[in-house]
Amino acid sequence: MAVSFSFSFSSRSLILGFSFLFLLISPALSQTCKSQKLTNNNVYSHCLDLPTLASYLHFSYDSTNRSLSVAFVATPSNSNGWIAWAINPTGTGMAGAQSLVASKDSTGAVTVKTYNISSYSSVVPEKLSFEVWDTSADESGGFMRLYGKVKVPEELAKAGKVNQVWQMGPGVGANGMLEKHDFAPANLNARATLDLSGAQSTAGSTGTDSRTKKKNIHGILNAVSWGILFPLGAIIARYVRTFESADPAWFYLHASCQSSAYVIGVAGWGTGLKLGSESKGVTYSHHRNIGIAVFCLATVQIFALFLRPKKDHKYRFYWNIYHHGVGYAILVLGILNIFKGLDILNPAEKWKTAYIIVIAVLGGIAVLLEAVTWIVVIKRKSNKSTKPYDGYNNGQGRQQPLAP
After folding, report:
1. CB atoms within 10 A of CB 252
2. Alpha-carbon distance 311 to 331, whole Å?
3. Torsional sign, CA 277, 283, 285, 287
4. What mean pLDDT comes out for the span 379-402?
5. Per residue in 138-192, pLDDT tens?
6. How many helices (H) and strands (E) does the chain have?
7. CA atoms within 13 A on the CB side of 180
8. How many angstroms separate the CA atoms of 225 and 17, rounded?
9. Which helix (H) or strand (E) holds 163?
10. For the purposes of burial, counting CB atoms within 10 Å of the CB of 327, is it exposed (0-12), middle (13-18) or buried (19 or more)?
11. pLDDT, tens digit (0-9, with 9 covering 90-100), for 207-224
């Protein structure tokens, strides 16, 4: 009865894990600019999946009067955060950017203000160097949307291209000064050239969408392998083996889980290497280094299957230390790196919450089974200690009469 109870928990864990996988795939792969519905009822000629910060730009340009209509969509870094889209007539960064910023006011309504960012020391509301009108903003479904129209400066209109910059930050001070955004690579690389004709919207959007899909696939593979299957295999090895009737089934379940986790994890590691080679100048050092460490430790751990000595072998004690130590290191580093990856990918908060729930469920199962297995072991020892001595206990021969 206890064994079936344990296996039912494992089955539920698998179901939860694959439910999380389905939930993660659905929004990540389908959320592109073309799938978004805007609330201002405007129709835009072009849209772009911007390459960082999970942001999107819808735009139309009228060359006859140099008016550029935009809808910028992004997820703020927190509930009181701000999002910004800007044209920089003089450079490619934030310094000199003519920005439209959406944020919540004291009543909780989302409003738009303009910021002429002449320097980083004072980022306060100020008129832009060109005309701006029809600004508005709203928020729903975890996204904040910023709308507006700008008069593109004549020299930029002639070139047919503008330097665009986008960003998001934690909040706005009482004086209207924007609180500093993160300085992670994703934030520092939130800039690109916008072709006003929309020529890059097809090629650029397809390329970005492909890169986004690769990021999502990389994240999904690693979340399922190191974040779900590997912890599940560890739970099976530690707790199911306690029940004598589960031997040797627990070993095959454990080996299957860990082998599957390794194969899927190697695929995820490979996609990560591919992404790294395609993202020149963008490096997530901690995430990359932990990923390499997890892959190396997991490869070493696989050899444990081939080097496993018999239970009565003199080296079995040292093998146990090696196997358990490496296994727990993979467990901790793998889960830690998944959260680092989620911070980089920056999906909607509910997907991070979903993974936290999965890990919490697995942790709860582990705590419950820890108590159950201790009870089983204590009862088993108690039964052995109270069993009448028959001369065969503990593997000894039958008791002989004492010599005279």
Report:
1. 10
2. 25
3. negative
4. 57
5. 988 788 899 999 999 888 888 888 999 999 888 887 777 778 888 888 888 888 8
6. 9, 10
7. 7
8. 10
9. strand 161-169
10. buried
11. 444 666 788 889 899 999
Cβ–Cβ < 8 Å for 350, 142: yes
In whole angstroms, how large is the CA radius of gyration of the chain? Answer: 29
Side-chain half-sphere exposure of 248, counting CA atoms within 13 A: 4
The Cα 344–Cα 223 span in angstroms is: 14
Distance CA 74, CA 52 (A): 10
User: What token pair was written down for 372?
Assistant: 């159950």
- Token pair, residue 58, equals 């819808």
- Contact (CB, 8 A) for 140 and 151: no
pTM check: above 0.90: no
Determine the residue type at 296. Answer: C
Cis peptide before 248 (omega within 30 of 0): yes
Identify the weakest region by mean pLDDT among 94-103, 197-206, 395-404. 395-404
Better-scored residue on pLDDT, 313 or 69: 69
CA distances (Å), 3 to each of 23, 228, 240, in order?
Answer: 30, 21, 7
